[in-house]
């Protein structure tokens, strides 16, 4: 049953939650709805077709990483697992985002910023990618990366990209 989104987002939601994990990305023939992108719904650029076994391996690895990250705050092991998941599906936005967060928690600020920048390269409308870039630059512990001007610039980009979505009628 489709309960959220339209088109390929609905398929991704259904596939990801019902256990029939035969797809990770949108069909190549469909284009994303700009409103869905503006609301931060996952949009994954072209990823090589995966076999059923690769798809199962991806979701098993991703779920283990999420579980370790959220229930045990095991940043090291989660980062390893997110990297394994990304070796299978290199443009999976959630995996990139969470890997960046793990690296941030581990104090690997250059690694974290690289992941968040990659997320914005894949999806230029990524609110969370731009927000996290700003957070890294605004973190005094980030050493040479600490740059309040760069943080402000990243946060302004986030606001500029998110602005029209917040002003849409009915939201």
Please give the largest β-sheet.
none
Query: How many E strands?
Result: 0
Helix proportion range: 55-70%
Order of secondary-structure elements: HHHHHHHH
What form results from the Cα inertia axes? globular
Query: What value does the average pLDDT take?
Result: 77
Q: How big a fraction of the residues is strand?
A: under 5%
| Classification by helices and strands | mainly alpha
What tags apply to this protein structure?
single chain, 171 residues, mainly alpha, 64% helix, 0% strand, globular, disordered N terminus
Layout of helices and strands, plus pairs?
Layout: H1 7-18, H2 34-38, H3 52-72, H4 75-88, H5 93-105, H6 109-122, H7 127-137, H8 148-166
Structure description:
The protein is an all-alpha fold and 171 residues long. It has eight helices and no strands. It has helices at 7-18, 34-38, 52-72, 75-88, 93-105, 109-122, 127-137, 148-166. Helix 3 (52-72) packs antiparallel against helix 4 (75-88), helix 4 packs antiparallel against helix 5 (93-105) and helix 6 (109-122) runs antiparallel to helix 7. The protein is globular, with a radius of gyration of 17 Å. The two termini are 24 Å apart. Mean pLDDT is 77; it is low at 1-46 and 167-171.
């Amino acid at each position: 049953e489709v309960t959220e989104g339209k088109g390929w987002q609905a398929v991704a939601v259904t596939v990801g939650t019902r256990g029939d994990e035969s797809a990770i990305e949108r069909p190549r023939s469909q284009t994303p709805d700009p409103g869905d992108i503006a609301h931060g719904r996952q949009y994954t650029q072209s990823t090589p077709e995966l076999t059923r076994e690769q798809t199962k391996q991806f979701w098993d690895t991703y779920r283990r990483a999420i579980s370790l990250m959220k229930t045990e705050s095991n940043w090291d092991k989660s980062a390893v697992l997110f990297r394994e998941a990304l070796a299978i599906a290199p443009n999976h936005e959630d995996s990139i985002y969470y890997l960046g967060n793990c690296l941030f928690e581990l104090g690997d600020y250059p690694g974290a910023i690289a992941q968040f920048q990659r997320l914005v390269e894949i999806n230029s409308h990524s609110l969370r990618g731009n927000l996290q870039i700003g957070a890294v630059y605004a973190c005094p512990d980030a050493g040479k990366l600490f740059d309040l001007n760069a943080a402000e610039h990243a946060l302004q980009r986030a606001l500029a990209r998110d602005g029209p979505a917040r002003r849409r009628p009915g939201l």
